[in-house]
Design brief:
Blueprint (H helix, E strand, L loop, with lengths): L1 H31 L9 H20 L10 H27 L1
Helix pairs in contact: 1-2, 1-3, 2-3
């Protein structure tokens, strides 16, 4: 059963790393949006293509009145922190119980 325990722990570790990387991508995209970036820059295009589908989903699910401030990055960051605190920790605990 230790193989299953190690597998679940590895999945939890990789998920934690992926969520942390995406959290930093969201932060950088939010900071870049404060200035007028060149839309043809490859880095800006990458940030937009990676974050905009998630931001758009948040905007559709939680329609907010137009107030000039886009809080979808904040909501995405809160969701990432929730997943790290709940899902990753739960996977680690399951791995310890299985092993």
């Amino acid at each position: 059963m230790f193989v299953m325990s190690n597998l679940i722990a590895a999945i939890a570790g990789v998920l934690d790393i992926v969520l942390t990387i995406y959290m930093w991508i969201v932060i950088v995209a939010a900071l870049i949006s404060w200035v007028n970036p060149d839309p043809y820059n490859p880095i800006i295009r990458f940030l937009h293509s990676v974050t905009e589908p998630v931001f758009g989903l948040v905007r559709r699910v939680l329609p907010l009145p137009p107030m000039g401030i886009d809080i979808s990055p904040i909501i995405v960051l809160l969701a990432i922190v929730f997943l790290q605190r709940f899902l990753v920790k739960t996977l680690y605990q399951i791995a310890m119980q299985v092993g």
